[in-house]
Amino acid sequence: MSIQEQYRKKAAELLSSGEVKLVIGYGSGSTPDRRRALFARTADDAALFHVDAACDANLSGYLVNEGLLSDKKKIGIFLKPEGIRSVNILAAESQLDPDQIVILGFTEENGTVSGLQGTQASDFTSLMTALKENRTTSEKEQALVDKIEAMTPQERFAFWQAEFEKCIKCYACRQVCPMCYCKRCIVDNNQPQWVHTSSHTLGNFEWNLVRAFHLSGRCVECGGCDRACPVNIPLRLINRRMANEVLDAFDHFSGMNQNQEPVLASFKKDDPETFIL
Amino acid sequence: MTKILLRDKLDDCLTRWHAAGFDVVGPVRKNNISQYATVKKAGELDLGIILPDRTLKDLFFPQTEPMFSYRISKQKIDTEEYLPPGRQRIIFGARACDASAMAIDDPLFGWDYQDTYWFKRRNETVIVTIACTAADEFCMCTSLKLAPDSTQGSDILLRPLGDNRGWQVEELTDRGREAFSRIEALLEESPAQTAALADVPIKFDLDLCREWLQNPENFESHFWKEISMRCIGCGTCTFLCPTCHCFDFQDEGDTYTGIRRKNWDSCSFALFTMHTSGRNPRSTQSARWRQRIMHKFNYFPGKFNLNSCSGCGRCTRECPVDMGIIETLQEITKLSQ
Fold this sequence. Notes:
The complex is a heterodimer.
Chain A: H1 3-16, E1 22-28, E2 35-40, H2 43-46, E3 75-79, H3 81-92, E4 101-109, E5 112-115, H4 125-133, H5 139-149, H6 153-164, H7 172-176, H8 201-214, H9 224-228, H10 235-250
Parallel strand pairs in A: 1-3, 3-4
Antiparallel strand pairs in A: 1-2, 4-5
Chain B: E1 2-6, H1 10-19, E2 22-30, E3 33-39, E4 64-72, E5 77-81, E6 88-94, H2 96-109, H3 116-123, E7 125-130, E8 156-160, E9 166-171, H4 174-181, E10 188-190, H5 206-214, H6 223-227, H7 236-239, E11 247-253, E12 257-264, H8 285-304, H9 314-318, H10 325-336
Parallel strand pairs in B: 2-6, 6-7, 7-8
Antiparallel strand pairs in B: 1-9, 1-10, 2-3, 4-5, 4-12, 8-9, 11-12
């Protein structure tokens, strides 16, 4: 039985037995190559789920939609490893109770999907360790990263200036991100107005820099913001760089488990102090 | 015999228009995005695309626009008004959906006050539209009772020739005729046949949708919750919509000195209707999506006898969660049958 068939069956069982009230997965999209979030409430709905290489969205952000988990009932959700890491962070940051989340995990490699063993976020600890040890970047991606790293600060500034000039402040990057669950984002605060709301170059820089720092040590590199950006700013490169920084400086790989302390909101006595003169 | 403009004369046209004081703007792909931008040479134009990622409205109603600066001292308040630079422009290679959107927004910006910024730019711009010979699965102009060769909002309509060597010229307005009189010598008389227009299938029944939306019973329909459940509340559909026109004012600076700006706003944002008291009459994403659909296909037509949508399909094409107007109006059509 294909992983898709297995998971349709599993989702149908979860729903018909009443173990979960809802399963969040992937359904058909508006074109054959698109998949979109599907919210299944009945066993019949579960027959519409897809599990294939086109299922790229990290659906975990839907879990923190206002009130969804407040009745203490369980929810099933299709997640790739990055999504499971997001659940761990949301649990660590007290945004959800991981016991309410039943995971239908899968992973994709070279266009082929395979299922992951386990149903609770805590079942995937060894997978997280493996992911931390084997961080990979595609050759094409690495070439771009190397090119940017080799730039002088002036050239790099010009590169990002050209990218951020395209920003229209639609906040798709924020809205699609499971880590952006703040009830009121700092850019939406106007007393004081910390960040310019205008979408001019300065305002766009401020927004993207604030976001980069806020996601440092929290981003799981699911690529959601990068795919969502309607003006094609390569946001993944920023997040990748920040993830590398916290890994190098603090040996912190975000979303390892649900007890992980947020790296920028905690300290250890042996934290490097290279930035203190 | 009709007038035609050959593709290989385009550089000469640009030279003449530049000499006559026009900026020339057209679809350009730069930095991994395509948008209408100023060009010096015809070779910079990207005319082979279905439509640019960004819309024509950017050129008339930019995402942020300074209105005036202020300086408050003990004795007086000084202000300096900013107006768009007075440059004559020719937009070469607009799409019919984008040009139609300008005609849709004209009555809006001239309704309760004349929007100086909008009309100054409108009056300084000649829109040369090229009819579409190709469409993708998200194009829906025909569902909006428009077409790949709609003339609304355009000053000139160019119909591609069958052999792709150029375009048949249809002059629609005096402004268009004036701009094309500058290149009269470059045009030719020719019996050349025009290419077949893009085939854009009708995707939903607009009249049935309007009827359904007008029925007060459907305002609280569970449909709105179901259809918008995966909406993440970003501004992609609004900001890439050629007709969406909502804006917000922002004072940048402090109490004594600063700039007032007019910035795009979106009904998808939770903050859009937030009251100072903290109450939000549209407190859920489904209420916000309903407003977006109601405004475009019920309230706006009620007021201006026009739909606030020209069928470009960007809302659906670019939506991060694969939502958009097409699916919603298709579902409403089904509900109405």
